[in-house]
User: What shape does this take?
Amino acid sequence: MAKLAINGGDITRTTLFPAYNTIGQEEKDAVMKVLETGNLSQFLGAYHNDFLGGPNVREFESKWAKALGVKHAVSVNSNTSGLFTAMGAIGIQPGDEVIVSPYSMSASAIAPLLYGGIPVFADIDPVTFCMAPESIESRITSRTKAILVVHIFGHPANMDLIMAIAKKHNLIVIEDCAQAPMAKYKGKYVGTIGDLGIFSLNYHKHIHTGEGGVITSNNDDLIDRCQMIRNHAENVVGPKGIEDLTNMIGFNFRMTEIECAIGIQQLAKLPDLLAERLENVAFLNEHLSKFSALELQPHPEKGSVHTYYVHPIKFNKEIAGIDRDTFVNALKAELPSAILRETAPLIGMGYVKPLYLQPIYQQRAGWAFNHPAADQKSINYTPGLCPIAEKMHFEVLFTHEFMRPGMSTEDLLDVVSAFQKIFDNIDELKSVETRA
Ligand SMILES: *Cc1c(COP(=O)(O)O)cnc(C)c1O
Assistant: This one.
């Protein structure tokens, strides 16, 4: 008789897991305080005292900058709008090339296109899953303007080598830190090493304000340009006496007073939330390391901190005798979802499909690809372009979120039991031919 739930056996655990919910009384009180003032936003899109927003916006930004030890923080209404702002601020023009990771949320790669820039994909490192420095260097041309680094899953990218490449070729470095708030690379917070760092405060992330984002930098000029792009630059450049009008078309990318009041409380909770997450990862790693078909991600180098937005695990199908997808489907069947939002257990197969395989790149859809300034030789989105990213996506990697704060030791042990049960009964998953 079948033991595994996917074959009709009993499920390892039936009760739902605790929800990941970071919103508490502190946020409620902070929101009420703002509501009582009647002033839900104080931004003015003009050269005026309120050009930089109201008291909660400013307090949130100054606390964020202080927490990371960086000179400036500018709030924006998403990481996506932060990436757009960054591309504008660094002066991306049609035909400029930006080296990006194919193994990231889509917004990281799409950002250059807004200004006619061309995303050029570099392959990833099979251990960190971040862009591999040697692949970055191989993609540099005379039109390369910037490297957009993603600290994917919270693992810091190899910033020493990337900064050295940038210096050698005179390139700007932007860090997408959406999954890595308070991650560190050799003692420095990510988002403070390159020219600009961009964080996300959407509801999937470690901390959130519903939607939101933060740009960080030590560069006064870039921050000035970000502040203008966030808030109707065109109204401000005249009175402010700005001469370089490149990309000085403004958006409304502003956060509200309510969101920033929530953000202040969320930021205060981040260190404890992160510590609990790392403890849960350590616990799971200890218990999962006995399964030889699973390859856990090694700790980053000394002084570096991984923030585990998700917990990535590589699956060895040769050792297991079954393929990854069969394994993950069986694992999903053993475990319930959590209470909040989820309709299935939070386990993902392969993370995102390498972005250049999306229709927008395959069909070169958009004016940037066809602009006369674009070098057609650099517009290469051929399948096979980034073999490691493709292998991770299609065959090797899976991720889960059972290390979220709020999980008890018993909850974590149930997750381990599900893995154990599958490995104990793995023959049930092998095809008839391979079993014989
Ligand atoms: C979530 C995420 C984004 C987009 O963030 P938003 O705030 O939703 O715009 C960008 N990059 C990465 C790596 C992300 O994880």
